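The authors assume throughout that readers already know how a fold can be written as discrete tokens. For illustration, here is how one protein appears when written out as sequence plus structure tokens:
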Amino acid sequence: MFAAPVKIPGLSFDALRRTALALAASALAACATLPAQVPAPAAEPVRLAPGEWPQARTDIAPDPDIVFGALPNGMRYAIRRQTIPPGQAAIRLRFDAGSLMEEDDQRGLAHFLEHMAFNGSKAVPEGEMVRVLERLGLAFGADTNASTSLEETIYRLDLPRTDAETVDTSLMLMREVASNLLIEPAAVDRERGVVLSEERSRDTPAYRVYKERLAFFLRGQRPPERMPIGDPQVLRSAPAERIADLYRRYYRPERAVLVAVGDFDVAEMEAKIRARFSDWQAQDPAGETPDLGPVARRGLEARLVVETGVQESLQIAWVGPPDHAFDSLAKRKRDVIERLGFSVLNRRFNRIGRSADAPFLGAGAFKGDEYDAAEITLVSVNVKPGRWREALAAVEQEQRRIVRYGVRQEELDREIAEARANLQAAVAGAATRRPSTLAADILSSLRDDYVVTAPAQELEIFEAAVAGLTARQVSDALKAAFTGQGPLIFAVSPTPIEGGEATLLSAFQESRRKSVAPPPAAGPAAWPYTDFGPPGEVVERTEAQDLGATFVRLANGVRLTVKPTPFRDDEVLVRVNVGRGLLSLPKDAPGYGWAASAVIEGGLKQISAEDMEMVLADKVYGARFGVGEDAFAFTGSTRTGHLDTQLQVLTAYLAEPGWRPEAFERVKTAMATVHDRYETTVGGVAARDLGGLLRGEDPRWTFPSRERIASAELDDLKAQVSPALERGDVEVVLVGDLAVDTGIEAVARTFGALPPRPADPERVPDAHREVGFPAPAEEPVARTHKGRADQALGYVAWRTSDFFADPRQARVVAILGEVLRLRLIEELREAQGATYSPSVAYAHSFNLPGWGYISASVEIPPEKLPAFFDDVARIAAELAEKPVSEDELARAKQPRLERLERARLTNEYWLNELSRAQADPRRLEAARTVVEDTRAVTAADVQAAARRFLGARNAWKFVVRPAAE
């Protein structure tokens, strides 16, 4: 589905990643019996003893479903049984060690060490670890991965089964990582190119801006000097011994935590962990936790960074010492009060951003700890091009307004209602959380030594915290948050600002001199879309019992598919397909999917998007709109008890979209600089251009030019979308925790009450389905980027066919793609060390006759592009000439089978599979046969498909080279 590539309402700030998570998650927990004063940050951090968990030192009880333990060597573990989905598990090994621990000549080696965990240990030869896991059904990257940050290194395994072999092998591999890595010089040298490739791919304008911002805010402190990707020169030349030095000093039992969540017996898992890890003893002296340095004393300062291809933005920061207060009810009380205040401020920013002629696209205020080096309160704003001065004044004055006049009680009550609704939803769905989600919750608690609590506990504490909470208490807490060193103004612009930092300071001081008035009170609003008329009658009802789906036709022509599932408690996903999407457009019509978010942001005829969020604050619902290949689609996610509200919202968008011009202009403004951002990286250029190129440059799938974006009008989007919304067929799909009759009745009251719609989808003219594929050529189609001169991308695609031309052949091609992926990884990554992540993709259209492909791509230095194309051609020829081995076939097929089996245990999978199934029953047969057909693929099938499709004369090539080359 097409969607606008720029997210408008929200902002994502790398520097405050943990704070953003805390604002969105269930960390709102406190105790109302404690005073509301905001204590000063603790001077020194509390250090846990080896093997100690934080609940031993606090008044907060841990999640009772988690077993916490420790071995005599100091290694801790956390185990939780989770039987939904059945037979799956998440295993994590976390080390309290990241790039902050590096010496100057080791910058980047903590991350390099993470790579070496996959390159040979005492029990597992180099290159064999991934193969072992593939045979068990774990795909490299998707199920087998690791990450290194400034503070920690985490190894992740997502197990498709919890049989003894899979669990024992996984624990054995984690034990090898703990202390048995070889880190041989030859293996290190082979991996250098892979790590350097990752360094190239990470070096984007956004990353460079992040480094500048961190250096400005944490001046003189250690974190800005220890970015995980490191120093390229160190990566090229550091001896293996310097990697091994980090390994010996910091991969130690007392710094390690093993997390196991899944469908297993907890006592058995605990016994396995004890048996496997109890003999682990550190041999070398322990590495020290580094001093991060003090927060510098500073006044009002400004920093301007000019970086081509970035979103123009501003941040205002107040920097203070890190908050070392230990997790407690008192601390959580402080946090909930403060975060509610920030929520009110962010709501005000959102209102300004949605107004006509707003100077910014989005703004947000947050407070959080930065790598335990400082606590930062940040106001950040994405600026409309050229309007930084107005945007700076708008956010500065709004921040000052709330500090002076505080929050209003009705504003606070609204934020409490929304927070409560989200916490209640978390409680209702707690029993069916995924193992990976539960493991992530435990891991996130380790960074700051806070106690892992269950959703029910968090809701209980939250309710105690907000009982009797006043706007004055929240206002006082928010005012206290805007203190510290600074304010520091950080500005990012794709072009210079005349006068530089002096101009920024002058504009800030000018804004400060203007007085601010109290905020206006919000007008009363009510939800106006509760009654759409008499409920529709069911005129047809059938079932597909093997799929657990019920198909209904209502009297007004609306079709409904309902599939109850046990996958997620209290979750219902909704999809509403309307009309024929891109297929309904003439071939020469440019698509406006890039502006699709303006439909939702435009609100409804009788109520704005902002007021709708206010009056429905105590409901959990979603509203998204996209332009798909075969339908215009509204989607949402809700609680079982809020299904009526969810359907009312989507029905209202179908029947009475608001089409507010300011929403379209907001999206259009955000898109005005998207080409500049795409052009800065090879991946951006490919993402922009391949969709159109692979479809014969059909305008419906081609990314819009700068000129087309600049000239676009709201009427253009309406002209494409309105006919379907007003007259198109309607199909509603409900999947999740609901009874069939409940779903039918809810849809009958909403979509079923609308005026008549066509009973079947409109027939698409054959000419609209005729979408081309680029003709093979010896010379690649070339594009350029404006990023680093050592970055390039090579891409090869072979045409296959559509899905329904031969469904079984499509499943064979998928396995051929998996085999090709294995070969490319082994050749380009493992053997040559030429790239970090070679990629393979495959697709078979359900709607476009004859359209499908399999592709291979790689990010690589420009001078290595010819060798890449030669390697791909050789591998393709080898696959055609000789059958793959049974072992290689199993390593390609088993992870795909496991992914399919796991996907079929999710609501998202069935929402997609059942979409449009009533109009095209072949989709149901595709859902029935996918696992069986995939399992039946043989080596001979793969070879035959390679012969048919992967010939050198069938290859279409594409490259992205540096513009300066």
